[in-house]
Amino acid sequence: MKLDVYSSRDMILWGLVALAWPSRVAAADPSGMDMPTADFYPWKRIFSDNFLVNAPRGTFADKDKYGTTWHSRGWDWDADPRNASVAPTVDSMHRGIYSSARTLEVSNGLLDIWPHKAQGPQFGANGKLEGGEWKEVVGKPWQAERPYVAAITPYVLGNGKSAMRFGRYTVRFKVEYPKTASGQNNYTAAKGYKTAWLLWPRSEAWPRDGEIDYPEGDLSTNYFSAFHHWTCNNSTSGPNPEECKTFKEGTGVQYQEGFERIASYSDWHTATIEWKNGRINFLLDGQLARSHYAHPRDATTTKRVPGTVPHPDPNVKAEELLMRWILQTETELNDEYIPATSEAHIKVDWVVVWKYEPCPGPECPK
Ligand SMILES: *[C@@H]1O[C@H](CO)[C@@H](O)[C@H](O)[C@H]1NC(C)=O
Ligand SMILES: *[C@@H]1O[C@H](CO)[C@@H](O)[C@H](O)[C@H]1NC(C)=O
Ligand SMILES: *[C@@H]1O[C@H](CO)[C@@H](O)[C@H](O)[C@H]1NC(C)=O
Ligand SMILES: *[C@@H]1O[C@H](CO)[C@@H](O)[C@H](O)[C@H]1NC(C)=O
């Protein structure tokens, strides 16, 4: 942890938080670490979920389960897949179908996210999905080869509201892989699926309003990374126009910074995105995360932080830039065939979200 990242007050409060998070042998939570509940300046806790309400597969989006506290992409298709007027919702690569009913289950205090292939109906005359054709389908017994994935968003502000400016988003998770005959993790057997758990702008204006991803990675690599896609106006106006003016859809990856290879999916970890005025920190287990790609590097940035003045587009007011948190589990960003047997179980023990409430007055804590 670099000292210039936090003020000394933050460091002291971090110490208090560390004391408040005992790693008891007999912790109540299955991951061995209890869900944190404390507020600490400048963060005020507004949402948490310990996944204590059991939800058998197919019921996650029900109102008496998680339907009033989480939004599930594709829930309306899930509700009646035979209704031809409701299209399934496809993932970023137009390969996976978002289906909380098929992929989510809550039991023993854990949310289980299960990306996998299974039987699926054909949609439209040519097997078209919303927004494009699923390339793998051609010539394959695709009734058994639909990848099902999940994207869920907590209503952190209650009443169906999930988007806010700044915030501290924490998730405790691990991936359980298929095993080899000798009981080892078989990472290859999870090929085709990834997490891109992220903050995404409510405006849907991308790359203009930025994107913050963590933990992101292909499950088969067994490591996850963090990425910050800069707020970017591809016109020649605004600050640093030279970095944006050549932006083209599909090549936007140049306009991001990555902190790659932070930690392994196969162990329990706590991943935190701390998005505040002028800075984004990616934390691992309560400490500033480090990238282990090429050179070890602290996972923190001040570059073009969304919601921070000046926005690259002078027409966008910084305070209007809101983002929502999506636990987006989807297919890999390539066209490689996903074996029908590929799968993984992503276990989530708890999530906690804090609102950013810096103190405005002279009586603020020093
Ligand atoms: C199909 O879904 C649409 C949109 O939600 C709804 O208006 C319609 O009533 C549904 N049709 C049937 C037969 O349930
Ligand atoms: C791991 O999984 C892959 C894909 O299912 C399989 O081809 C391979 O044989 C497995 N490896 C071992 C050692 O079990
Ligand atoms: C600039 O961004 C807009 C909106 O995202 C897009 O329609 C347009 O094609 C982009 N222009 C270039 C040159 O990439
Ligand atoms: C870029 O900024 C200009 C004005 O500075 C604005 O007219 C334009 O809409 C912006 N483009 C995007 C994609 O935000």
Main attributes?
366 residues, mainly beta, nine-stranded antiparallel β-sheet, nine-stranded mixed β-sheet, 4 helices, 22 strands, globular, disordered N terminus, binds 2-acetamido-2-deoxy-beta-D-glucopyranose
Can you walk through the features of this model?
With 366 residues, the protein is mainly beta. It contains four helices and 22 strands. It has helices at 8-20, 75-79, 100-103, 241-244, and strands spanning 43-49, 70-72, 97-98, 104-107, 110-113, 116-118, 128-129, 132-133, 146-154, 167-176, 193-201, 211-218, 224-229, 256-263, 269-276, 279-284, 287-288, 290-291, 297-298, 300-301, 323-331, 345-356. Strands 1, 4, 5, 10, 15, 16, 17, 20 and 22 form a nine-stranded antiparallel beta sheet that branches. Strands 2, 3, 6, 9, 11, 12, 13, 14 and 21 form a nine-stranded mixed beta sheet that branches. Residues 1-26 and 245-253 have low confidence and may be disordered. Bound molecules: 2-acetamido-2-deoxy-beta-D-glucopyranose (4 copies). Residues 208, 233-235, 237-238, 313-315 line the site of one 2-acetamido-2-deoxy-beta-D-glucopyranose. The site of one 2-acetamido-2-deoxy-beta-D-glucopyranose (NAG) has 4 residues, from loops.
* Proportion of helical residues: under 10%
Give me the count of strands: 22
The number of helical elements comes to 4
Describe the global form: globular
**How large a portion of the residues is in β-strands, by DSSP E?**
25-35%
Secondary structure: elements and pairs:
Blueprint: H1 8-20, E1 43-49, E2 70-72, H2 75-79, E3 97-98, H3 100-103, E4 104-107, E5 110-113, E6 116-118, E7 128-129, E8 132-133, E9 146-154, E10 167-176, E11 193-201, E12 211-218, E13 224-229, H4 241-244, E14 256-263, E15 269-276, E16 279-284, E17 287-288, E18 290-291, E19 297-298, E20 300-301, E21 323-331, E22 345-356
Bound molecules: 2-acetamido-2-deoxy-beta-D-glucopyranose (4 copies).
